[in-house]
Amino acid sequence: MQVKAPDRTAADHRAGPEERPARRSRTTRPLWRSRRTLQGIGYAAPTAVYVAVFFVLPLLLVGQMSLHDWPLIAGDRGRNAPENFTDVTDSTLFWPAVRFTLLYTAIVTVVLLGLALLLALLVQESRPGAGFLRTIYFLPGALGLASASLLFWGLYSPTTGPLSRALEKLGLVDDPVSFLGTPTSALLSTVFLVVWKFAGFYMLILLVGLQRIPHELYEAARMDGASRGQIFRRITLPLLRPSLALSLLLCVTGSLLAFDQFFVLTKGGPDNSTVTIVQLIYREAFQRLNLGTAAALSILVLAALLLLNAAQFRGLHRADES
Hints:
Layout: H1 8-14, H2 19-66, H3 83-89, H4 94-122, H5 130-138, H6 145-156, H7 162-169, H8 183-211, H9 215-223, H10 228-239, H11 241-256, H12 260-265, H13 277-286, H14 291-321
Helix pairs in contact: 2-14, 3-14, 4-8, 4-11, 5-8, 6-8, 8-11, 11-14, 13-14
């Protein structure tokens, strides 16, 4: 007995409207996917080339320099690992620079983020003058850090700066004030510059986070009799955590890589008391003309930043899970 094969055309005719488009899409889906893939590659290619040329290749070159004797003028003189790393850590300025950089980072992070949060809370509500205040707070961020440092260098000058003269006219001091003359005053003066420069930028980040919090939560909390302090601790801070995490990450990373403000204001003085890690890299490369030790120190700084950022992300992830 011969069994007749089912008529595929008839089966397709009997199939419902939901089955027939699915069968036709098997032939068109690979072409559609390949087209979208090519479009994605085309969009990402410029960024990938930029990252490869200006980040990956320089990083590989720095890694090669850190393992070789590489004077600035003479060039590569051969492999000498790990002498570059031991020479850096044995330097008399290395550990003082590490301690000062950590101290500066801690002070700037606490003061800057605290003031930025206060400013964001002040201009959070839409009230008369709030837009003007937001612009005023953010305006110093439009100035470059090197330009702002040069401006404050003129303001801090004990001979020609207006701050010292104003204090003398007010009778608060008898002699010209050297704002950069001692290690403590140099550190605090630089912190004041950085806070003035970046408070508006971090205020903007936190303000965006505050405006994403639904007003219904605040209204419900007020109806339940919650005080302002309870609302801030139980609603504002928990829901503001992503913006605070981003601000903390940017602030810590930027403070650890501080260079412009100290290079313009203090040149590492007085008595090398304000030398940061990046300044030490600059000294090794362009004053001692040793690119090998400068590259080794750069690798150490990069490794420290990667570990610190990984620890921050892990801590934030645990906080979100709890």
